[in-house]
Amino acid sequence: YSSAVQKFSQTLQSFQFDFIGDTLTDDEINIAESFKEFAELLHEVELERSMMVQNASDLLIKPLENFRKEQIGFTKERKKKFEKDGEKFYSMLDRHLHLSSKKKESQLQEADLQVDKERHNFFESSLEYVYQIQEVQESKKFSIVEPVLAFLHSLFTYNNLTVELTQDFLPYKQQLQLSLQNTRNHFSSTREELEDLKKRMKEAPLTCKLPGQPTIEGYLYTQEKWALGISWVKYYCQYEKEAKTLRMTPMDQKPGAKQGTLDLTLKSCVRRKTDSIDKRFCFDIETNERSGTITLQALSEANRRLWMEAMDGKEPIYHSPITKQEEMELNEVGFKFVRKCINAVETKGITTEGIYRTVGSNIQVQKLLNAFFDPKCPGDVDLQSGDWDIKTITSSLKFYLRNLSEPVMTYKLHKELVLAAKSENLDYRLGAIHALVYKLPDKNREMLELLIQHLVNICEHSRENLMSPSNMGVIFGPTLMRAQEDTVAAMMNIKFQNIVVEILIEHFGKIYSGPPEDTTAPPVPPPRVAARRHKPITISKRPLRERPVFFGASVEDSGADRHGQTPNGSNSIGAEVPKPLHRSRLPAPRPGGDEPGRPPTEGRPDPRAEVEVGKLVARLQDGGAKPSNKAANGVVTSPALRTSTLQARRPAPRPGIYGREGECDGVPKPRSHGDKPVIMRPPVRPPDPPCRTPVPPRLEQRPDLITGTAEEMPSSV
């Protein structure tokens, strides 16, 4: 399982996303980096798991095997020696008892000496055997429990790591889910626009702009009015888009007629409505050299589309209840309509869930627009009445804004706004949009401020209506900004249009507090080598868990080493093994409080407990190998894992030391059914004196048994 997870982690690490477009949004950057974060997380978990498995061998199995081979095996050898010496002694004793008393005295004395010698050997072997049995039985109490204790400590260290990783992962998960939701919203809005574009392209396959060609040329017929009527003259026309120059060469060969090439500068191009002329495929242009409009006829509908695309021609909106040209501009009636819609929404529907996202009935929307923009009595509609619901009002407002002859944020500034939203530098992004807002015409800027202020009010009630600035950007991005060309590339920039509106909402106060200091041009973007202001979200990085090597030093040595450390946790001398870093946690206060005269211990580990576990692991490792400079197999001593909670419960607390609430005088309180057993903290011992009485070597191995002065020690010691 661990190997499979490691392979999966490697796959995630090497996986690369492919994105369409030249720039990624902040949310897409987060998504692109997410697999690397997942891979590092899985790798860290499996690395700790492998260390835990290694601990099972180093801390549990090997020490038990060493105890069996060295202690129990040595006892078996003692037993064999005892049996051999016993057999030899009793056989000699039997022979000695059968000796005749008639033998010489010297022979009898020699036989007695041999028996005494064998008896001494037998007694010595029996004592050594009995002593060895007693030693095995006594040492078994700690030599077997200590490896299990160390392994449990390692196991809980691994479990504690998973808890820490879970805590670190939760905020990252929430941020990534938000990025995923924003990206899904951008995808939905872009898909709707692409579906509409695909439908239009199926109806007219050649409506897209001429790819990569700034110049278009071909035959056009020009309407020329004469005193006796109207005639259509054929011209060969060449249009240069950058200079907006149109060269027209007449092709009709009439004898005696003066034929010359016309060079005109284009001002505007508008498609001619079908019901206004009896010819097909017509469009009107205005030039600087001629007054009035010039009507041109293309060779086909597809050909007219190409000419209009090259000339940035304006197409009428199909199926629009607003039919007159002046009603598609930002005029007084339009401002009145927008203000009435905003007032109605903020009065009776600002907390409606999914406001502006929920679409109203198309029939009701057209009915409202036709009534409001009626030429006889424009604006004479009461939106506060019960005839119009919130969905109809919001859909009508979006329809009006989307069907303006030019979007609120204008075609002229569209490319600059999109480029600003694509910037990696957040400060430049905001500054550029701030400057471009004040480049809008006065009416457009006034309308934009009115709408953004309304959207800010909507987002202030996001807890009720569930509409965040990101959601409003998805809805109003294509409404307030539109590309002049209907191309797939323009559709892929919709997500950046959404980001522009989102920035306007989030920074409304700053942007509309006044124009920037220099409105002549937006700020110059920093070079690409500059550090990003926006970095992808990551799982919170913790200090590396370095596994220290525990040496079998005394308590005083360990304390001295601890005092010799530098503030960052490393040793000032020979700093090869830094102290492991962990998230600090305040331990639960002891019910009995701290002893008088001892400083408070809350928030810092018990040094005796750390040293005991360290010496325990050192003894286990010293059984068959020297202490290495490698990690101590995952055994850490941190405040987060209080080793004192793993110590065995003593038979009874000392007199006068209280345990848990309700326990005193060594009598535990009966536990009710269902309560979990609580491991009691051992009572705090008084501080060790500066000078300690020398003790036998075997007791030096158990510093927890040496707690008092020489006078307090029992006579057995």
General description of the model:
By secondary structure, the protein is of the alpha+beta class. Among the domains are: 1-203, Arfaptin homology (AH) domain/BAR domain (Substrate Binding Domain Of Dnak, Chain:A, Domain 2, Up-down Bundle); 215-311, PH-domain like (Roll), CATH 2.30.29; 332-513, Rho GTPase activation protein (Phosphatidylinositol 3-kinase, Chain A), CATH 1.10.555.10. 47% of the residues lie in helices and 7% in strands. The chain contains 19 helices and six strands. Strands 1-2-3-4-5-6 form a six-stranded antiparallel barrel. A hairpin with a 2-residue loop joins strand 1 (215-226) and strand 2. Helix 2 runs antiparallel to helix 4 (145-203), helix 6 runs parallel beside helix 11 and helix 8 (390-402) crosses helix 13. The longest helix is centred in the N-terminal third of the chain and has 72 residues, at 26-97. The protein starts with a helix and ends in a 17-residue tail after the last helix. Mean pLDDT is 74; it is low at 206-212, 317-321, 323-327, 528-532, 547-605 and 624-717. Keywords: Cell projection, Cytoplasm, Endocytosis, GTPase activation, Neurogenesis, Synapse. Residues 516-717 are annotated as: Disordered. Residues 592-613, 660-678 have a biased composition (Basic and acidic residues).
